[in-house]
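Thread: Newbie trying to understand structure tokens

Hi all, I'm a second-year student working on a class project, and my supervisor (Dr. K.) asked me to get a predicted structure for one chain before our next meeting. I've only ever worked with sequences, so writing a 3D structure as a token string is new to me. If someone could post the tokens and maybe explain what I'm looking at, I'd be very grateful. Here's the chain:
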Amino acid sequence: SRGLGDVYKRQGSTTPLDTAFQTLLYDLYSKDISVKVKTSFQNKCANGEYVFGQVPFGYAKSEIEKNTVIVNEKEAEIVRHIFSLAEKGMSSTQIAKELIAKQTPTVTQMRHPERKMEREHHTWSNTAVRRILNNRFYLGEMAYGKSVCKSVGSQKTRALPKEDWKIIRNNHEALISEEIYDQVSSFRADCSTKRNREKHPLTGKLYCGGCGYSMVYKPLREKNRYRRFECRKHALLQIPDCCTYMNADLLEETVLMMLNKELMLRGNAMKQKESLSSFQRCLLYTSDAADDK
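---
Reply by user tm_fold:
Sure, no problem. This is what the structure looks like when written as tokens:
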């Protein structure tokens, strides 16, 4: 079949006008394909098909019906257990500690048992527990249309408010009832106390020597008398070797001192290299002068 480039290709060299027209056609064709793909995606979602990649913990994709979600009983048992603990009034941190004490496998350990964990202490976290307790997918609901593209063909998206989401109820088998979900409503995202955290240049670069997890930056607040980095797993694992906290001011001063030392060493190395090159040039010049004599 002939493409757009073949239709408008002329013998010999193409003129700038031909190139511009061909580029315009390609752009229009690309946008047309993008609109068709988006429309097809939305139609599948409206029909209740799950086309979002990995399914939430407790479910699996059916091998019989395409884009259909079914219950994974082994995972679902853990999900129901988490909700039952929340019903008893346990916090997300307490639930995570309970799961760790019972050696309950994590999502990664359940779905990828062959994968070697990078950290020795791969465990549940209060964030993972809250993510499950906040998810209305376990009520049998499927939400889509959570974001829109800023322009046709663009990869950038804009998040939509929850009231604009499209929701299909009773789309798949529920793991919990509406009554249970209402009882653990304190875990819902709209009741969360999550704040916009102050970013620090060293965030994501510091790791605890005891458990191997990243250190979390704690800025100055009402309860924090000084800025510091904390091991985010120490409260759950209680590992004696964990670096419980580290003063951010002292850490910044240490890092800056090490960087300056490294820069000085590299600067001295560059000077030594230049001196060596200069010395070699002098030797060559002396040797050439001696040969001329």
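A couple of things are worth pointing out once you decode it. Residues 1-5, 7-12, 190-194 have pLDDT under 50 and may be disordered. The first helix runs from residue 4 to 7. Feel free to ask follow-ups in this thread.
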